[in-house]
Amino acid sequence: MQSMKWILTAALLSVVVISGCSRKATPTPIESLKVIKDDVRMFEVKVPSNWRTQTIAGELVLATSKPTIARRFLDFSKGDGGAKVELRAIPVDSTRNIDSLIKNSKLEFEDGLDRYELTDVQLGGKPAKLLHVTFDQEDGEFESNTYFAENDSVITILTLAAFGRTYEDYQAQFEEIVASVKLAQRPMVVERKQDTLAPQGPEPPSDTLRPYSASEFAIQIPQNFQGQKSNSNGLTSVNFFGSRLDCNIQVDVFDASKQKNLDKILDQNKPNYGGGKANMTTLGGVKAGYFSYNPTASVSSRAYFAVSGNRLFRFTVNWYKPEQSVYLPIFEKSLKTVAFK
Fold this sequence. Notes:
Layout: E1 14-15, E2 33-37, E3 44-48, E4 52-56, E5 60-64, H1 72-75, E6 82-91, H2 98-105, E7 108-109, E8 117-123, E9 126-137, E10 140-151, E11 154-163, H3 171-180, E12 209-213, E13 217-222, E14 226-232, E15 235-241, E16 248-255, H4 262-269, E17 279-283, E18 286-296, E19 299-308, E20 311-320, H5 324-335, E21 339-340
């Protein structure tokens, strides 16, 4: 990960527009396209096979033409060309809908003008909004097209963008990418067959904790929970869950070598958790902050952020609202056992 900012889309950056548009960067060719499929929210999208691809299960696919370009799409610093394909899946809640996400996706310009064009289109067979913008930078024109479509109470956001007046070089492949999108949906809860002699209903989390150790951290989790680990492009993710799949602890570990300021990381992620201020606490003996939000009508969540060494840790806990008194105390007890390595 090039910067903590790519975890969640940063909004309302102040951008200087430079006059003149004769400059043009050298584009990174797209050799071919490959399909990325998500097993959590079931979305699909094609991305350039020779670009760097990063994923977060159920949330994100990001393909960038250069390993170092992801940061530039967030701070619009000086650089030389570069393009990205990004798909995000964001659940609808009381504070997040298509209109609010469109608003948060817009950059602010120093001259105060709104350069965006919003049109009605289709994405994944559903009505969608297309947010288009172009403006000039030192290496040439920047162009971005962002699609917003809702399906099954989840909003799919597809962004295609390029610096250095190179968007036109990718036009044909970008059109194929848009056509390839399958919209995200709510995670499916698999019904498990139960022994007729066993107690009915999901098993509550055990009050007895057992240790789990990874190379970056250690934690104690309920005795009757299992851990499912995945690793993609340097991102380590572990999902701890029991018999209720909507009650879990998800741990994601990111490279923080280029951004270690927790306050800045929290500020950058705030728009994607309802815009409220983070609650400050400690985790594993270090400063931490968390956002409370509601991914669905029946589920409450907290996302904890902490920096230790050159790593950013995000601990996400989800619980079924009617059983908060059963799950939340155990999850809080588990988080108190976190130790960073």
